[in-house]
Amino acid sequence: MVKEKLSIFKSVLRSFLKAIFVIFGLGIGLAIVMFLFDAMGSGKVPQYSMQTKEVYLPNADGELPTNFDTKTPVLLGFDITGTIGDINLTAQDILGLLTASQNGRFKGRVKALVLHINSPGGDAIDSDIIYRAIKAYKKKYKIPVYAFVEGLCASGGFYIACAADKIYASYTSVIGSVGVIKAPYFNVARLMERFGIESKTFFVGKGKDEMNPFRPWAPDEGQKQLKLMDFFYQTFLDVVVTNRPKLSRTQIIQDYGANIYAAPEAQALGYIDKAGMDYEGFLTELLTAADMDASQPYHVMLMQPKKSFFDFANIEAKFQSFLNLDFTIPKKLQGKVCYLHTLALQ
């Protein structure tokens, strides 16, 4: 009887394990199939090519296109939305979009570029790369680049906007914040001493463990960090005064600082060209700048990066955002020099 029960148990266990392995195998197979479909969807290798998706937007008359001819001229838009350098807005994304906009079915069709901006800023390096890439694109293809702000255009967002020929904003938008910030450092040396905890950091190179939180800081510690941040600040000032002629270096440093301004005041000070512009009026002015006949067919399109099903970093970022696990700045920006307004830290 005992042997029979043992035999039945082994049989059930064997069947259960077989079922588990079958399900596991099917899961792997399904994942492979989905990966292949994802890769073949664009006809390109995902890790080397930017996959994009496009959305048709209304024209200056508020009408969506009925003719989808691939030779029709295009006013093409990019989203500069969210924190720059975070998972959904990187320099790599924008560089990929710029390349895609002059290849395939878009080759020779893009007559103007629109930057849709709603950003508190972000990583200083990504902001600078995007700014310089747009400037180079504008020079190479000789097309107008206009920025349209709906919401916030602060710090790194304004840095990128300076690449545009004109900056327009809705009436309630907020613009400015020319400055540099870095996430705070904390020192726990006294707390560790209180609880009898010791640590030892191994390093080679003078200053390699600067701002080490596990030992007392020297009185002048952090000066090298400030020197580096001043370099980024002076670079920001160069970008602003070069592209926004109504703003002077002295005014920004002594008067305006890293403040933000409502769109009407931002216009008066010279941060933007026009406040209270509706999108239809904006498109009408852009058509004129692009030397296009508004009575002839044209498409207004928004091009966005197409995120892969297997982009686990993107899934993780969305999950963290849903759970509100990042209480200061996005994880990818921690420890970096940022052109970021403090609204993003709240």
Please explain how this structure is put together.
The chain has a domain at 50-183 and 250-345: Alpha-Beta Complex (2-enoyl-CoA Hydratase, Chain A, domain 1). 40% of the residues lie in helices and 19% in strands. It has ten helices and eleven strands. Strands 1, 2, 3, 4, 5, 6, 7, 8, 9, 10 and 11 form an eleven-stranded mixed beta sheet that branches. Helix 3 (124-141) links the parallel strand 3 (110-123) and strand 4. Helix 2 runs parallel beside helix 3 (124-141).
Features:
2-enoyl-CoA Hydratase, Chain A, domain 1, 10 helices, 11 strands, disordered N terminus, 40% helix, 346 residues, elongated, eleven-stranded mixed sheet, alpha/beta
Query: Looking at CATH, which topology of the domain at 50-183 and 250-345 would you report?
Result: 2-enoyl-CoA Hydratase, Chain A, domain 1
Distance between the termini: 69 Å
Helix content: 25-40%
Q: How many beta-strand segments?
A: 11
Order of helices and strands: HEEHEHEHEEEHHHEHEHEHE
Quick summary:
It is built from 10 helices and 11 strands. With 346 residues, the protein is of the alpha/beta class.
Draw up the topology in text.
Layout: H1 2-40, E1 52-57, E2 74-84, H2 91-100, E3 110-123, H3 124-141, E4 145-154, H4 156-161, E5 166-169, E6 174-176, E7 181-182, H5 189-194, H6 223-243, H7 249-256, E8 260-262, H8 263-269, E9 274-275, H9 279-289, E10 299-305, H10 312-323, E11 337-340
Parallel strand pairs: 2-3, 2-10, 3-4, 4-5, 4-6, 5-9
Antiparallel strand pairs: 1-10, 3-11, 6-8, 7-11
Helix pairs in contact: 2-3
